[in-house]
Amino acid sequence: MTSVTRRLPWLAYAAFWAGVGLFFSLAEWQHYMRGGGRHPWEPFLWEMSGAFTTALLAVAVYRWNDWLLAPGRGRATAVAGYLAGFVPYTLAHSALMFGSRYPVYRLAGLHYEPGSLLSVLGYEGAKDAVSYALVLGLSLGWRAFVRGQRQAAEVERLKAHLAEARLARLQEQVQPHFLFNTLNLISSVMHEDVERADRILAELADLLRQSMSAAAVAEHPLAQELRWVEPFLSIMRQRFGERLRSRIEVSDAAARCIVPALLLMAPVENAVKHGVARSAAVVDVQVAADVADGRLRIDIVDTGDAPLDDHAGGTGLANLRARLAALHGDAAEVTLAREAGRTRVRVTLPARREAAA
To answer: What is the pTM of this model?
Structure first.
């Protein structure tokens, strides 16, 4: 399959010149027949030999053009090279074109006399000047097109690397942020209840072990993400006791969707930090996810009474938006709203399923 792909441009190139030769052959054939020509194949031999000879020399002109435009050679060198290239071009074109016709005439038993050398060079030289300029222009245009395609591919490659680096940096910012907040929590609890602090430390150790095992994974199924969220909520319940009630409701289809690692840590932390920590009443924190119309929708809802600005502040949601933008562009979004006494963070992104093993 690869060899066919490699040959395809050359086949297209040959077809192009065959079409050019056929076009001029038909035009010359009409003129030839009106003039009383006796061998209808002659116009086709003349024009097709001219077209295919030009096709062969066009490759040489393209290579010559590449050499002239190589780094280190000035514009004056290129212009001088273009002018100097015309002489060998027209000599080679005439030699190859007429040389290919003689064997055909010999096989047909006919004498072929194109004229004297000077008359042939004079007549063909005028046409070769046009064809040489045309081939040279096409070579310059094709070279510019290829260079543009390569530059575009290089820009896309650099953009991909930049996005990967940016995403890695943002993820590095999320992990210390979570760890700092959790250690802060343990520090405050240990002065009140040592056994509770010990339990939190044990749960934190389990969570960090899972984090380390997935350190090299940029994305994973939502079900795996919840294995990080559940210990976190358990740690928070150790801190707030009956003031925090949590619930996770995720459909099977949503659980199989691929999401960025640590996607939910920032919004869940915000729900606890602002919704629970700043409310004296019992606060429900819910994580729900479903799939609809090819989109994965994740809601993190809390019933605390903290103002919306508190949830929106800080780096957590900003990092979350930046990570999703790096991965999905405009196809993903994070919205924050307060309605019916609840604060809801909604994360929406394309529903990509885990590949079957």
So the answer is: 0.52
